[in-house]
Amino acid sequence: MKRLDIFFSLLLLGVLVGCREAGKQVTPASETYKPEVMTSEIVDTLAAEPLPVEEKLLRADDIHLTKELLYDKYTLDDTYPYQDTVRSFKWDVIRNCLAYIENMQRGQERWVVLQNYKNLNREAPLVRKYVRNAYKRVADTLGVERYQSVPMYLPGDTLVPERYGRDGTLAYLRGQVGSFCRVYPVTWEEEWLVPERYLKQLSDSTIFNHVVFVDRLDQNITTLERTAPGEWAIRSMNPATTGRHAPPYAQETPLGMYLLQQKKQKMVFLKDGSSATGGYAPYASRFTNGAYIHGVPVNVPRTAMIEYSWSLGTIPRSHMCVRNATSHSKFVYDWAPTEKSLIVVIE
Predict the structure, then answer these.
(1) Phi, psi of 328, deg, nearest 5
(2) Tens digit of pLDDT for each residue in 40-68?
(3) Which residues does the chain have with pLDDT short of 70?
(4) Which of 24, 62, 93, 191 is the most buried (most CB within 10 A)?
(5) Cβ-based neighbours of 319, under 8 Å, separated by 6 or more
(6) Using an 8 Å Cβ cutoff, are 173 and 107 in contact?
(7) Each residue of 137-162: pLDDT tens digit?
(8) How many Cβ atoms sit within 10 Å of the Cβ of residue 299?
Protein backbone atom coordinates (compact mmCIF):
# COMPACT_ATOMS: atom_id res chain seq x y z
CA MET A 1 0.00 0.00 0.00
CA LYS A 2 2.86 2.40 0.71
CA ARG A 3 3.91 2.41 -2.92
CA LEU A 4 0.35 3.29 -3.92
CA ASP A 5 0.47 6.20 -1.49
CA ILE A 6 3.69 7.45 -3.07
CA PHE A 7 2.14 7.04 -6.50
CA PHE A 8 -0.91 9.11 -5.81
CA SER A 9 0.84 11.84 -3.84
CA LEU A 10 3.07 12.35 -6.86
CA LEU A 11 0.10 12.03 -9.14
CA LEU A 12 -1.76 14.78 -7.31
CA LEU A 13 1.30 17.02 -7.28
CA GLY A 14 2.28 16.54 -10.90
CA VAL A 15 -1.01 15.65 -12.53
CA LEU A 16 -4.20 16.71 -10.79
CA VAL A 17 -2.87 20.10 -9.75
CA GLY A 18 -1.41 21.59 -12.87
CA CYS A 19 0.27 19.10 -15.17
CA ARG A 20 0.04 20.46 -18.68
CA GLU A 21 1.53 17.58 -20.67
CA ALA A 22 0.46 17.68 -24.29
CA GLY A 23 -2.11 15.03 -25.20
CA LYS A 24 -0.81 12.38 -27.54
CA GLN A 25 -2.88 10.88 -30.35
CA VAL A 26 -5.03 7.84 -29.63
CA THR A 27 -5.45 5.33 -32.41
CA PRO A 28 -8.99 4.58 -33.55
CA ALA A 29 -11.10 1.43 -33.12
CA SER A 30 -9.29 -1.47 -31.48
CA GLU A 31 -5.70 -0.28 -32.02
CA THR A 32 -3.94 0.37 -28.73
CA TYR A 33 -2.43 3.67 -27.72
CA LYS A 34 1.22 3.53 -26.72
CA PRO A 35 3.56 6.50 -26.19
CA GLU A 36 6.82 6.74 -28.09
CA VAL A 37 8.75 7.72 -24.95
CA MET A 38 7.83 7.37 -21.28
CA THR A 39 9.23 10.33 -19.36
CA SER A 40 7.00 10.54 -16.29
CA GLU A 41 8.83 11.05 -12.99
CA ILE A 42 6.03 9.14 -11.34
CA VAL A 43 6.79 6.05 -13.37
CA ASP A 44 10.53 6.41 -12.66
CA THR A 45 9.80 6.49 -8.93
CA LEU A 46 7.65 3.38 -9.06
CA ALA A 47 10.13 1.51 -11.24
CA ALA A 48 13.09 2.06 -8.90
CA GLU A 49 12.59 -1.28 -7.12
CA PRO A 50 10.78 -3.93 -9.20
CA LEU A 51 8.16 -5.90 -7.31
CA PRO A 52 7.48 -9.63 -7.62
CA VAL A 53 5.24 -10.46 -10.56
CA GLU A 54 2.18 -11.09 -8.40
CA GLU A 55 2.57 -7.67 -6.72
CA LYS A 56 3.75 -5.61 -9.66
CA LEU A 57 1.88 -2.35 -9.96
CA LEU A 58 0.58 -1.15 -13.30
CA ARG A 59 2.33 1.87 -14.74
CA ALA A 60 1.07 4.45 -17.19
CA ASP A 61 2.54 2.60 -20.16
CA ASP A 62 0.70 -0.56 -19.09
CA ILE A 63 -2.62 1.18 -19.76
CA HIS A 64 -3.91 0.79 -23.32
CA LEU A 65 -6.63 3.10 -24.61
CA THR A 66 -8.90 2.39 -27.56
CA LYS A 67 -11.55 4.57 -29.14
CA GLU A 68 -14.79 2.65 -28.97
CA LEU A 69 -17.32 5.45 -28.68
CA LEU A 70 -20.79 4.72 -27.36
CA TYR A 71 -21.75 8.40 -27.67
CA ASP A 72 -20.59 10.09 -30.87
CA LYS A 73 -22.23 13.53 -30.95
CA TYR A 74 -20.12 16.70 -30.71
CA THR A 75 -16.98 14.53 -30.54
CA LEU A 76 -13.73 16.48 -30.24
CA ASP A 77 -10.37 15.47 -31.72
CA ASP A 78 -7.44 14.52 -29.49
CA THR A 79 -6.11 18.05 -30.05
CA TYR A 80 -8.25 20.88 -31.38
CA PRO A 81 -8.02 24.66 -31.83
CA TYR A 82 -9.65 27.10 -29.45
CA GLN A 83 -9.33 30.81 -30.24
CA ASP A 84 -5.57 31.40 -30.59
CA THR A 85 -4.53 28.28 -28.64
CA VAL A 86 -4.66 24.50 -28.94
CA ARG A 87 -6.55 22.36 -26.48
CA SER A 88 -6.32 18.61 -25.96
CA PHE A 89 -7.34 15.52 -24.07
CA LYS A 90 -4.43 14.82 -21.69
CA TRP A 91 -4.10 11.10 -22.36
CA ASP A 92 -0.80 10.80 -20.46
CA VAL A 93 -2.42 12.26 -17.36
CA ILE A 94 -5.45 10.04 -17.80
CA ARG A 95 -3.35 6.90 -18.19
CA ASN A 96 -1.45 7.73 -14.99
CA CYS A 97 -4.75 8.01 -13.14
CA LEU A 98 -6.18 4.83 -14.62
CA ALA A 99 -3.08 2.89 -13.59
CA TYR A 100 -3.59 4.02 -10.02
CA ILE A 101 -7.31 3.24 -10.11
CA GLU A 102 -6.56 -0.33 -11.18
CA ASN A 103 -3.78 -0.71 -8.59
CA MET A 104 -5.88 0.56 -5.72
CA GLN A 105 -8.44 -2.20 -6.33
CA ARG A 106 -6.05 -5.13 -6.09
CA GLY A 107 -6.45 -5.79 -2.37
CA GLN A 108 -9.47 -6.88 -0.37
CA GLU A 109 -10.35 -3.32 0.55
CA ARG A 110 -13.42 -2.09 2.38
CA TRP A 111 -14.51 1.10 0.69
CA VAL A 112 -16.24 4.05 2.30
CA VAL A 113 -17.21 7.44 0.93
CA LEU A 114 -17.14 10.68 2.93
CA GLN A 115 -20.64 12.17 2.88
CA ASN A 116 -22.20 15.36 4.19
CA TYR A 117 -24.30 16.76 1.34
CA LYS A 118 -26.11 19.90 2.55
CA ASN A 119 -24.82 19.08 6.07
CA LEU A 120 -27.34 16.23 6.30
CA ASN A 121 -25.01 14.36 8.67
CA ARG A 122 -24.49 17.44 10.89
CA GLU A 123 -22.35 20.52 10.38
CA ALA A 124 -18.69 19.71 10.84
CA PRO A 125 -17.01 21.21 13.94
CA LEU A 126 -14.52 24.03 13.51
CA VAL A 127 -11.03 22.87 12.63
CA ARG A 128 -8.01 23.88 14.67
CA LYS A 129 -6.97 26.53 12.16
CA TYR A 130 -9.52 28.08 9.86
CA VAL A 131 -9.97 31.08 7.61
CA ARG A 132 -12.78 33.02 5.96
CA ASN A 133 -12.52 32.58 2.22
CA ALA A 134 -13.56 34.89 -0.61
CA TYR A 135 -17.13 33.63 -0.18
CA LYS A 136 -17.03 34.66 3.50
CA ARG A 137 -17.38 31.03 4.53
CA VAL A 138 -15.28 29.05 6.98
CA ALA A 139 -12.61 26.89 5.34
CA ASP A 140 -9.52 25.03 6.46
CA THR A 141 -6.07 26.29 5.50
CA LEU A 142 -6.11 24.02 2.41
CA GLY A 143 -9.19 25.78 1.08
CA VAL A 144 -11.82 23.11 1.81
CA GLU A 145 -15.00 24.71 3.14
CA ARG A 146 -16.70 23.63 6.33
CA TYR A 147 -20.14 23.53 4.67
CA GLN A 148 -20.97 20.05 3.32
CA SER A 149 -17.58 18.69 4.42
CA VAL A 150 -16.47 16.01 6.87
CA PRO A 151 -14.28 16.62 9.97
CA MET A 152 -10.94 14.79 9.83
CA TYR A 153 -9.16 14.09 13.12
CA LEU A 154 -5.55 13.16 13.67
CA PRO A 155 -5.00 9.76 15.35
CA GLY A 156 -4.79 10.34 19.09
CA ASP A 157 -6.76 13.60 19.01
CA THR A 158 -10.53 13.34 18.73
CA LEU A 159 -11.32 16.69 20.34
CA VAL A 160 -10.65 19.16 17.51
CA PRO A 161 -10.54 18.23 13.80
CA GLU A 162 -7.37 19.07 11.88
CA ARG A 163 -8.91 19.58 8.44
CA TYR A 164 -12.00 18.97 6.32
CA GLY A 165 -12.60 16.18 3.82
CA ARG A 166 -14.73 16.86 0.78
CA ASP A 167 -18.03 15.11 0.37
CA GLY A 168 -17.63 12.34 -2.20
CA THR A 169 -14.04 11.46 -1.29
CA LEU A 170 -13.30 7.73 -1.50
CA ALA A 171 -11.37 6.07 1.34
CA TYR A 172 -10.19 2.71 2.63
CA LEU A 173 -11.84 1.65 5.91
CA ARG A 174 -9.16 0.43 8.33
CA GLY A 175 -11.17 -0.24 11.49
CA GLN A 176 -12.96 1.51 14.31
CA VAL A 177 -11.96 3.30 17.52
CA GLY A 178 -15.04 3.94 19.63
CA SER A 179 -17.43 6.13 17.62
CA PHE A 180 -14.65 6.98 15.14
CA CYS A 181 -13.56 5.07 12.07
CA ARG A 182 -9.99 4.78 10.87
CA VAL A 183 -9.93 5.79 7.21
CA TYR A 184 -7.25 6.26 4.58
CA PRO A 185 -8.49 8.58 1.79
CA VAL A 186 -7.24 7.30 -1.56
CA THR A 187 -5.87 10.70 -2.62
CA TRP A 188 -4.20 11.53 0.69
CA GLU A 189 -1.07 10.19 2.40
CA GLU A 190 -2.17 9.54 5.98
CA GLU A 191 -4.69 7.71 8.11
CA TRP A 192 -7.39 9.81 9.77
CA LEU A 193 -10.20 9.38 12.28
CA VAL A 194 -13.72 10.27 11.15
CA PRO A 195 -16.99 10.09 13.13
CA GLU A 196 -18.99 7.15 11.81
CA ARG A 197 -22.03 9.27 10.90
CA TYR A 198 -20.08 10.92 8.04
CA LEU A 199 -19.22 7.66 6.27
CA LYS A 200 -21.13 5.33 4.00
CA GLN A 201 -19.70 1.87 3.43
CA LEU A 202 -19.89 0.64 -0.14
CA SER A 203 -20.85 -2.85 -1.21
CA ASP A 204 -18.16 -5.53 -0.94
CA SER A 205 -18.66 -6.19 -4.65
CA THR A 206 -17.80 -2.61 -5.63
CA ILE A 207 -15.52 -2.38 -8.67
CA PHE A 208 -14.68 0.88 -10.41
CA ASN A 209 -14.81 0.14 -14.13
CA HIS A 210 -16.38 3.46 -15.18
CA VAL A 211 -14.38 6.69 -14.94
CA VAL A 212 -15.24 10.21 -16.11
CA PHE A 213 -12.43 12.73 -16.56
CA VAL A 214 -13.22 16.44 -16.47
CA ASP A 215 -10.52 18.89 -17.58
CA ARG A 216 -10.94 22.32 -15.97
CA LEU A 217 -8.24 23.94 -18.07
CA ASP A 218 -9.21 22.73 -21.54
CA GLN A 219 -12.93 22.51 -20.76
CA ASN A 220 -13.58 18.99 -21.97
CA ILE A 221 -14.92 15.70 -20.64
CA THR A 222 -14.20 12.09 -21.56
CA THR A 223 -15.64 8.82 -20.33
CA LEU A 224 -13.69 5.55 -20.15
CA GLU A 225 -14.68 1.98 -19.36
CA ARG A 226 -12.40 -0.85 -18.26
CA THR A 227 -12.83 -3.86 -20.54
CA ALA A 228 -9.94 -6.01 -19.24
CA PRO A 229 -6.90 -5.53 -16.97
CA GLY A 230 -4.98 -2.57 -18.38
CA GLU A 231 -7.50 -2.10 -21.21
CA TRP A 232 -9.78 0.93 -21.27
CA ALA A 233 -12.26 1.93 -23.96
CA ILE A 234 -12.91 5.61 -24.62
CA ARG A 235 -16.69 5.99 -24.72
CA SER A 236 -17.06 9.74 -25.41
CA MET A 237 -14.96 12.91 -25.94
CA ASN A 238 -16.94 16.11 -25.55
CA PRO A 239 -16.83 19.82 -24.72
CA ALA A 240 -17.86 20.80 -21.20
CA THR A 241 -18.12 23.91 -19.05
CA THR A 242 -16.89 23.81 -15.44
CA GLY A 243 -17.47 26.03 -12.41
CA ARG A 244 -15.97 29.50 -12.14
CA HIS A 245 -14.55 31.43 -9.20
CA ALA A 246 -17.04 34.28 -8.85
CA PRO A 247 -17.99 35.13 -5.25
CA PRO A 248 -20.46 35.16 -3.64
CA TYR A 249 -22.25 32.39 -5.58
CA ALA A 250 -20.36 30.61 -8.38
CA GLN A 251 -17.50 28.30 -7.37
CA GLU A 252 -14.84 26.33 -9.21
CA THR A 253 -15.26 22.63 -9.80
CA PRO A 254 -12.83 21.14 -7.25
CA LEU A 255 -9.85 19.10 -8.42
CA GLY A 256 -9.58 15.51 -7.26
CA MET A 257 -11.16 12.05 -7.43
CA TYR A 258 -14.75 11.56 -6.33
CA LEU A 259 -17.43 8.89 -6.25
CA LEU A 260 -20.57 9.31 -8.34
CA GLN A 261 -23.06 9.38 -5.47
CA GLN A 262 -26.49 10.36 -6.69
CA LYS A 263 -28.57 10.96 -9.83
CA LYS A 264 -31.50 13.26 -10.48
CA GLN A 265 -33.35 13.35 -13.78
CA LYS A 266 -34.09 17.01 -13.07
CA MET A 267 -31.94 18.85 -10.54
CA VAL A 268 -33.88 21.96 -9.49
CA PHE A 269 -31.77 25.02 -8.66
CA LEU A 270 -32.50 28.39 -7.05
CA LYS A 271 -31.88 31.87 -8.35
CA ASP A 272 -28.69 33.39 -6.94
CA GLY A 273 -29.34 34.95 -3.54
CA SER A 274 -32.98 33.88 -3.53
CA SER A 275 -35.24 31.05 -2.39
CA ALA A 276 -37.11 31.21 -5.71
CA THR A 277 -36.71 28.41 -8.24
CA GLY A 278 -34.37 29.39 -11.04
CA GLY A 279 -34.93 26.34 -13.23
CA TYR A 280 -33.55 22.84 -13.54
CA ALA A 281 -30.54 20.98 -14.90
CA PRO A 282 -31.38 17.73 -16.77
CA TYR A 283 -29.80 14.32 -16.18
CA ALA A 284 -27.68 15.38 -13.22
CA SER A 285 -25.06 13.07 -11.68
CA ARG A 286 -23.70 14.37 -8.35
CA PHE A 287 -20.11 13.67 -7.29
CA THR A 288 -19.15 16.17 -4.56
CA ASN A 289 -21.08 18.72 -2.51
CA GLY A 290 -23.54 20.33 -4.94
CA ALA A 291 -21.42 19.59 -8.00
CA TYR A 292 -23.19 17.63 -10.74
CA ILE A 293 -22.41 16.58 -14.28
CA HIS A 294 -25.56 17.76 -16.05
CA GLY A 295 -27.09 18.99 -19.28
CA VAL A 296 -27.76 22.56 -20.43
CA PRO A 297 -29.62 24.43 -17.65
CA VAL A 298 -33.26 25.31 -18.31
CA ASN A 299 -34.15 28.67 -16.77
CA VAL A 300 -37.71 29.54 -15.74
CA PRO A 301 -40.23 30.14 -17.21
CA ARG A 302 -38.98 27.74 -19.92
CA THR A 303 -39.69 24.05 -19.28
CA ALA A 304 -38.49 22.21 -22.40
CA MET A 305 -34.97 20.75 -22.39
CA ILE A 306 -32.20 22.42 -24.38
CA GLU A 307 -29.83 20.14 -26.26
CA TYR A 308 -26.77 22.34 -26.74
CA SER A 309 -25.25 25.71 -25.82
CA TRP A 310 -22.64 27.77 -27.63
CA SER A 311 -20.84 28.22 -24.27
CA LEU A 312 -19.88 24.55 -23.92
CA GLY A 313 -16.14 24.04 -24.16
CA THR A 314 -15.31 27.75 -23.85
CA ILE A 315 -14.50 29.08 -20.37
CA PRO A 316 -15.73 28.24 -16.83
CA ARG A 317 -19.24 29.61 -16.35
CA SER A 318 -21.02 27.20 -14.01
CA HIS A 319 -21.74 27.10 -10.27
CA MET A 320 -19.30 24.25 -9.43
CA CYS A 321 -21.16 21.89 -11.78
CA VAL A 322 -19.96 20.48 -15.12
CA ARG A 323 -22.29 21.39 -17.97
CA ASN A 324 -22.61 19.11 -21.00
CA ALA A 325 -24.77 18.74 -24.05
CA THR A 326 -28.01 17.40 -22.64
CA SER A 327 -27.81 14.17 -24.65
CA HIS A 328 -24.26 13.60 -23.36
CA SER A 329 -25.34 14.16 -19.76
CA LYS A 330 -28.08 11.58 -20.36
CA PHE A 331 -25.44 9.19 -21.71
CA VAL A 332 -23.38 9.62 -18.50
CA TYR A 333 -26.56 9.32 -16.43
CA ASP A 334 -27.46 5.99 -18.07
CA TRP A 335 -23.94 4.58 -18.54
CA ALA A 336 -22.22 5.25 -15.19
CA PRO A 337 -23.53 3.18 -12.26
CA THR A 338 -24.10 5.05 -9.00
CA GLU A 339 -21.52 4.33 -6.27
CA LYS A 340 -19.45 2.30 -8.73
CA SER A 341 -18.14 5.12 -10.94
CA LEU A 342 -15.41 7.68 -10.37
CA ILE A 343 -15.22 11.32 -11.43
CA VAL A 344 -11.69 12.69 -11.75
CA VAL A 345 -11.24 16.45 -12.16
CA ILE A 346 -7.87 17.48 -13.64
CA GLU A 347 -6.39 20.54 -15.27
Answers:
(1) -75, -40
(2) 343 344 344 444 445 689 999 999 999 99
(3) 1-55
(4) 93
(5) 243, 249, 250, 251, 269, 290
(6) no
(7) 999 999 999 999 999 999 989 999 99
(8) 13
